[in-house]
From TrEMBL:
GO cellular component: cytosol
Name of the molecule in the record: Phosphoribosylaminoimidazolecarboxamide formyltransferase / IMP cyclohydrolase
SUPFAM superfamilies: Methylglyoxal synthase-like
Annotated keywords: Hydrolase, Multifunctional enzyme, Purine biosynthesis, Transferase
Pfam families in the record: AICARFT_IMPCHas (PF01808), MGS (PF02142)
Domain MGS-like: 1-146
Entries under SMART domains matching the protein: MGS (SM00851)
GO biological process, one term: 'de novo' IMP biosynthetic process
UniProt KW Transferase keyword: yes
Keyword Transferase recorded: yes
Length: 197
């Protein structure tokens, strides 16, 4: 299988342990954060904590955890570029081939009665969109999944072909950019309403 290393970090945990089990059974190393890591670990699936990859703890109440060159270099490195690969080797960066991320539940948060602005602000995801956009930018080398409904097709394709074809990669990248643009639009709308008060 072409996918050797995956980063799983999701707010919507639907079927994430099923996907993690499939990846583990196929020899894929899994990296994860917080609640996702706990769900994977509780299901008895080996998982590496993102801080063990970055060598840096989660800080600022989890605001900073994946914003690190060991993560973003692993996602953004172009595998066909010898300079990128040399730099990855020099800095001890191992490529990440699959990123499964969906974002903090901002919409659900602002729909709660009596939600404070501070609560809303804390549900603005920063690391998630950065990983989604980085992966989508580098879709030739990194598969990005933002929707749990795609796990089945991903697993079927990997079982059958051992890889994900370019058209599917591009389609998933487009879906990922749509996911982050809709997320930003929600935040924009929320802040607009706050200004109108």
């Amino acid at each position: 299988m072409k996918i050797k290393r995956a980063l799983l970090s999701v707010s919507d945990k639907k079927d994430i342990t099923k996907l993690a089990a499939f990846l583990h059974e196929n020899g894929v190393e899994i990296i994860s954060t917080g609640g996702t890591m706990k769900a994977i670990k509780d299901a008895g699936i080996p998982v590496t904590y993102v801080s063990d990859v970055t060598g840096f703890p989660e800080i600022m109440d989890g605001r900073v955890k994946t914003l690190n060159p060991k993560i973003h270099g692993a996602i953004l490195g172009v595998r066909s570029n010898p300079e990128h690969m040399a730099q990855m080797k020099e800095h001890g960066i191992t490529p990440i081939d699959l990123v499964v991320v969906n974002l903090y539940p901002f919409k659900q948060t602002i729909e709660k009665p009596g939600v404070t602005e501070a609560e809303a602000i804390e549900n603005i995801d920063i690391g998630g969109p950065a990983m989604v956009r980085a992966s989508a930018k580098n879709f030739r080398d990194v598969v990005i999944i933002t929707n749990p409904e795609r796990y089945g097709k991903l697993m079927d394709m990997l079982k059958k072909d051992g890889d994900i074809d370019l058209k599917t990669r591009k389609s998933l990248a487009m879906e990922a950019f749509k996911h982050t643009s809709e997320y930003d639009a929600m935040i924009t709308g929320y802040l607009q309403k706050q200004l109108e008060k």
